[in-house]
């Protein structure tokens, strides 16, 4: 995970804990990774923030034992807790746990120190309001080009095989006939994934600006190239049309948070 290590080394200020689990243990209660690995081993000096109601979801069903969840999360190393609803319950439980010495005051001091340090570095006490001078540049063409560059540099080509003496890719723009198939070839929502317009993402093309893979292929090839799209073509259709190339675009449907959890995550951490 070089990108994560590099971010810590360069001084990233905050890390949000995910809803996911590792070997059956919720990340919001995983002291081994949050404190021992991230804070101690990687020397992370910023603060750890929970996801929304992340402490509630330590138990199943959520908030089944909220006092335990607060204890487990704070002792795991979470410094700032996102409470969207019943914050007095959190304050009451945390105060009681500290008074009973179940959560040591040193843990609270560590959290406060980390949070204040980041705020001082960002000058939030002197200038707490955001700078709006650049707001009109958000989503500009320059930003879109930068996003495109990031995609180009992060995509992974597993293998560029050969059909003759030449690599298969890039495909010739003047190929006579190309088949484009698959559930994700003409679905912008599937390309964008979860948290696109809605919590679990959307399906379709009529919700935001973007280019589907199918439309990009049609725009890129030579005008003489025939591009045929079938989401799920059968063998007879493929054989009878005598395509020069087939581009198949498949993937998962969009999801976010616990809807992407695997019940069989047995990966070990070292």
TrEMBL record:
The keyword Metal-binding does not apply. The keyword Hydrolase applies. It holds the Pfam family Glyco_hydro_3. Residues 155-256 form the Glycoside hydrolase family 3 C-terminal domain. Keywords: Glycosidase, Hydrolase. GO terms for molecular function: hydrolase activity, acting on glycosyl bonds. InterPro entries: Cellulose_Degrad_GH3 (IPR051915), GH (IPR017853), Glyco_hydro_3_C (IPR002772), Glyco_hydro_3_C_sf (IPR036881), Glyco_hydro_3_N (IPR001764), Glyco_hydro_3_N_sf (IPR036962). Residues 2-118 form the Glycoside hydrolase family 3 N-terminal domain. This is Glycoside hydrolase family 3 C-terminal domain-containing protein. It comes from Solanum stoloniferum.
